[in-house]
Inverse folding.
């Protein structure tokens, strides 16, 4: 988005040598979640290490959003556990951020949306302008957030997440309703964040997007992880029929 230096300090948790507890490995162990009498997440196991962009892909209803919310600590599994470097997910929520498909914004100005987060998290208020420039919204700073377009609103939601200096950023189909230019703008910010050391977990059902972004792919199907592999290997030769069908655009149920 901008040529300005990355406007926040990523703490690079995976390799951190400070006294903060390590976040990785991030583990979901035999996690189950039943909703409306159906097992939405069904004995899921996943271990994430501390680098790069993982895209979580899979057909509608596979459990991608629920998995993300469980990793983030927003929902607790019925059984099994999610741990971050051995600690419960709820204990590290301040060190990670989640961006939803529909932007969550305050009914205030664009700038005030960031001021609020920076103030709450003890961030430097002077970073607001750098963040707005970073996401290409400096010229909209005084405008009410509710008048932003969908793509602009999502960039502001992303800036709000970045303002918390997350070590890990979860994104749940953040470009699902955006046009191609807005989608690519978001993807560029995500890549820049990864390059600055932030760990990214990105849910998408857009195979093209997964190809553009992923270092690693987690393929989810019917509430379970069917494949977890390096992106090139996954797209060159998926190991399961369900993943092959999904990549080729055939309907997977
Ligand atoms: N609050 C809920 N109550 C009942 N069932 C739910 C609830 N939330 C999710 N589910 C069900 O759990 C399953 C997984 O949902 P989830 O939203 O995680 O899927 P997803 O892989 O993100 O799908 P999509 O690509 O369509 O967004 C779906 O069958 C969904 O209907």
């Amino acid at each position: 988005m901008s040529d300005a230096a990355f406007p926040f300090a990523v703490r690079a948790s995976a390799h951190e040598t400070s006294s903060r507890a390590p976040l990785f490995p991030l583990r979901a162990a035999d996690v189950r979640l039943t909703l409306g009498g159906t097992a939405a997440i069904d004995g899921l196991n996943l271990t994430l290490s501390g680098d790069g962009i993982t895209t979580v892909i899979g057909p509608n209803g596979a459990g991608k959003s629920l998995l993300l919310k469980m990793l983030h600590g927003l929902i607790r599994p019925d059984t099994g556990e999610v741990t971050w470097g051995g600690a419960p997910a709820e204990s590290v929520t301040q060190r990670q951020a989640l961006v939803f498909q529909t932007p969550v914004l305050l009914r205030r100005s664009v700038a005030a949306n960031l001021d609020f987060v920076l103030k709450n998290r003890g961030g430097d208020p002077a970073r607001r302008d750098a963040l707005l420039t970073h996401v290409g919204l400096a010229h909209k700073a005084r405008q009410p957030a509710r008048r932003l377009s969908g793509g602009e609103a999502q960039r502001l939601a992303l800036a709000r997440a970045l303002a918390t200096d997350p070590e890990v950023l979860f994104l749940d189909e953040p470009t699902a309703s955006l046009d191609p230019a807005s989608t690519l703008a978001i993807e560029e910010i995500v890549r820049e964040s990864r390059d600055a050391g932030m760990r990214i977990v990105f849910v998408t059902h857009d195979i093209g997007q997964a190809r553009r972004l992923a270092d690693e792919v987690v393929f989810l199907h019917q509430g379970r992880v069917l494949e977890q592999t390096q992106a090139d290997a996954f797209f060159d030769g998926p190991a399961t029929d369900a993943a092959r069908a999904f990549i080729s655009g055939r309907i997977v149920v």
